[in-house]
Amino acid sequence: MGRTRTFDVDAALDVAVETFWQHGFEATSIQQLCTAMELQSGSVYAAFGSKRDLFVAALRSYAETVSAEAVERINAPRSGVQGLTDYFGHLIDAMVDGRRRWGCLITNSVVELAERDPELAGMLANHLANLRVSFAGALARARAAGELRPGVGPEAAPLLVAVVQGMNVMAKTNPGRVALQAVVDAALAGLVRPHEV
Question: Band of the pLDDT at 1, cuts 50, 70, 90?
């Protein structure tokens, strides 16, 4: 019979998410994870498997919590433009004052690992596809409501995904609110009727 765990696995996973988010996969050692999680290495391996297994679990947790909450800001409002402005406003706040100052765990992982880990690349591509679908939905709602410039519609969703990924990389250089807002304003100015922004 296996030994009963005496720690909260979800809480430990949250700490792993934070640690990988700050430092990346390669730069985070098992010892660093154990110290942050306040666990012995045997407990970490027993609960999560290898370092890569723990990283995959951390990515999934991030996608199901941090990313899902952000995407819901796009989908929730009836106004597509409101969904976009809510999302980008929250993103900038998190980049200036919150955990997004480390960038995005998904974006960071794409840059670090996508070329050499096809399984992880597939997970990361699915995340970006979900973001693109949410942007396309918001743009479709906005077009139906007459909020967009003539000729603009859901096909502009990949542009917004690219803007987000660029901002995630910028966030790691601490660009400040004004610079981040300027990026968003420029992106939306090409899509949204002037009186709607």
Answer: very low
Tell me if 20 sits within 8 A of 32, measured CB to CB.
Answer: no
The per-residue pLDDT for range 150-186, each reduced to its tens digit, is 999 999 999 999 999 999 999 999 999 999 999 999 9
Tokens standing for 33?
Answer: 């994870």
Q: Are 143 and 165 in contact (CB under 8 A)?
A: no
CA dihedral 26, 109, 15, 170 (to 10 degrees): 110
Give pairs for 30-38: CB < 8 Å, separation 24+: 37/12, 38/7
pLDDT in tens, 54-94: 999 999 999 888 888 888 999 999 999 999 999 999 999 99
Domains along the sequence of the chain with CATH: 62-196 (1.10.357.10)
Contact 105, 17 (CB under 8 A): yes
Q: What is the CA radius of gyration of the chain?
A: 19
Left (φ > 0), alpha (ψ -120 to 50) or beta: where does 49 sit? left
Residue 53, both tokens: 């297994």
